[in-house]
Design goal:
α1 runs parallel beside α3, α4 crosses α5 and α8 packs parallel to α9. β3, α4 and β4 form a beta-alpha-beta unit. The protein is globular. 55% of the residues lie in helices and 16% in strands. The protein has 11 helices and 8 strands. The longest helix is centred in the C-terminal third of the chain and has 21 residues. By secondary structure, the chain is α/β, with parallel strands linked by helices. Bound molecules: erythose-4-phosphate (E4P). The site of erythose-4-phosphate has 11 residues, from α7.
Amino acid sequence: MILSMKIFADTGNLKDIQAIADLGILDGVTTNPSLLAKEPGDFEDNLKKICEIVKGPVSGEVTATDYKGMLDQGRRIAKLHQYMVVKVPLTKDGIKACKTLSGEGTKVNVTLCFSPAQALLAAKAGATYISPFVGRLDDISINGMEMVREIVTIYRNYHFKTEVLVASARHPMHVVEAAKMGADIVTAPPKVIEMLYNHPLTNIGLENFLKDWEKAQAVKA
Ligand code: E4P
């Protein structure tokens, strides 16, 4: 049974991760080669530091595209820290690598998923997480959240343990829709996580409360 939708930060930036962790709502982190390439320092050291901050699942992606290469890199990534999750792309070799790595007890996040059929294969290969990319589907005029709805239905039908990790989230509605569908996790960039709590009516309301309070204090003085 899902108790609460988890929120992951989709970034490799240590400062941003620390700030979100300080809010007390961070359950994990996802990275990819593009995100880690933006950060200074050694990527393996950075992943270890992220694990120390988050104390929860942190995905690090292989860059090899062949089965053997994915296994070599995946095993190395898994050894970096107890919280590391190995991310492999949803290709033929990726599915095979997922099966092998999962069989060894490594947590695998199968990424770059763009269809329910792909998600079905990842679950059968023992993936811990499947990452359907909603924003990138929306970008080509295909409803990304519909794909998530279908994946959630398929996984529920067969009680697959693979968690649905909604990725490529671009705005708060992706997060809200994912929660309504019962997705397990959403990973979002720091700016989208910030949008979740920022609301103009909250700011205006607070400003008015404080003005009224100050006025009343001035009258009493
Ligand atoms: C998921 O793990 C990916 O890192 C990410 O969500 C990709 O998002 P983008 O489409 O915004 O690059």
